[in-house]
Amino acid sequence: MRVSVIGAGLGGLCLAQGLRGAGIDVGVHERDPAITARFQGYRLVLSPVGYEALRGCLPRRWHPLLDAILDDAVVEPLILDPHLNKIGELGPARSGLVVDRHVLRHLLLTGLTVHTDAALTGYGVLDHGEGRVEARFTHGHRTTADLLVGADGVGSAVRAVLSPQTVPADTGVRFVIGRTPMTERFAGLSRAFGSKIVGDGPSLLLGAMRFRTPPKQAAEELAPEVTLPDIGDYVRWAMILPPNGSLGAETPQEAVLSRIDGWHPDLRALVEEGDPDNSTLLSIRVVEPRERWARGPVTLLGDAIHATSPTGGNGANTALRDADLLRRCLLRVTEGTQDLLDAVGEYERQMFEYGAEAVRHSLEALPAYVSHPR
Ligand SMILES: Cc1cc2nc3c(=O)[nH]c(=O)nc-3n(C[C@H](O)[C@H](O)[C@H](O)COP(=O)(O)OP(=O)(O)OC[C@H]3O[C@@H](n4cnc5c(N)ncnc54)[C@H](O)[C@@H]3O)c2cc1C
Predict the structure, then answer these.
(1) Does residue 372 register a pLDDT over 60?
(2) What percent of the chain has pLDDT over 70?
(3) 374 closest CA partner among 200, 192, 194, 256
(4) Which among 29, 115, 317, 318 is least surrounded, fewest beta carbons within 10 Å?
């Protein structure tokens, strides 16, 4: 069986690793000219489901490395004023596993065949020939596969053909995000990590990424065949701008600084010292899975079919869950206990159900971040 995965995001790469481990021939096609072509380095909180799905797709020998590059985040989510005084509580203390997306992508890329500068432009289902689907890419390249998986994110080109009625909805909300190396000064902000800092306008959200072991060192010690980026601990800062909140000509840092005038000097310094290459503005668009498409050798995974708002903290976890579920369904095909199209249909049945729930949950969480809570 040959599988073509479109998109080298977390979902597509996780699936490709799982299939590679199962001895299935898999190739990944990515639109970006290079894997590091744009900002991808925010931290993600892994849920128990996401963590188990990721482990299920990774070779066992990399499990110690995965555990070494995580962070045990224990937070007491508070509501703080601009001078870091407690004015309320967001909820009970919670703990979770945090991972850096850029580092995780490097782990997931190891050993895979990834074709970059390969944007899918269309595909056709073949009646005969060596594979069942022919995918077409920019520069005139083509490839055939028994299964085509669109893991190409919220603007999915695969979805545009497979399910043209499923279109992203723009919430109008914008997300400004950046990161700053963790120094002693900013480590002193620990009370604010996981908390919401509120003034008269949009809230500021901080989160820490502290690797159990620096990723590069962890790979050298635990899995020398893996090369991980040389990055240190950092603080992620983010601000959600309500509808019509436009940046104009401002940089993401300027946009945040102009909204935290007079705030605690450490908060301002944190944003001022942010890494401009790792700060950006993102639109929050969602995709809700509604109508199933006709049975066939093309399917979707991750944000391509259930894009959530980041306020749900569940988009990546759900994409990883998809990858592991599809891997397990395809294993039955290689074992000869299920037909390919039945296996894909079973994956879609389950994925539609929990994917729709993930989107609902993330949208319910959005207003609390957008409104002014004071
Ligand atoms: C700021 C922020 C914070 C977040 N925090 C969390 C969190 O804490 N927990 C959580 O679970 N989720 C979180 N998420 C959501 C999570 O990052 C996404 O849900 C997840 O990355 C989706 O993975 P994916 O593989 O489906 O898509 P993507 O990661 O979007 O990958 C899609 C890939 O497909 C490529 N592509 C697009 N079009 C084509 C084409 N035509 N041909 C070939 N390739 C193409 C793209 O270049 C990209 O590499 C967060 C998101 C943001 C923005």
Answers:
(1) no
(2) 96
(3) 200
(4) 115
- Token couple for 130: 């060596």
pLDDT at position 276 = 87
pLDDT for 190-244, tens place per residue? 989 999 999 988 899 999 999 999 999 999 999 999 999 999 999 999 998 877 6
Residue range 2-370 in CATH 3.50.50.60:
yes
Asked whether 28 lines ligand 1 (CB < 6 A), one says no
Sorted by where each begins, the domain ranges of the chain are 2-370
| Cα three-residue angle 372-373-374, rounded to 5 degrees | 100
Q: Evaluate whether 267 touches 180 at the Cβ level (below 8 Å).
A: no
Whether ligand 1 lies within 6 angstroms of the CB of 29 is answered as: yes
Contact 282, 175 (CB under 8 A): yes
Question: What pLDDT does residue 371 have?
Answer: 59
- Strand pairing partners for 99? 44
Which of left, alpha, beta for 129 (phi over 0: left; psi -120 to 50: alpha)? left
Q: How far is the CA of 266 from the centre of ligand 1 (A)?
A: 31
CA 88 to ligand 1 center in whole angstroms: 33
List Cβ neighbours of 368 (8 Å cut-off, separation of 6 or more). Answer: 311
Is 316 within 8 Å of 44 (Cβ atoms)?
yes
Q: Which atom number of ligand 1 is nearest to the Cα of residue 137?
A: 42
Structure tokens at 195: 């908390």
Query: How many residues make up the chain in this entry?
Result: 374
Which tokens sit at 305? 């079919």
How far apart CA 14 and CA 324 sit, in angstroms, is: 8
Mutating to test ligand 1, I would choose from 44, 115, 149, 205 the residue with most ligand atoms within 8 A of its C-beta, which is: 44
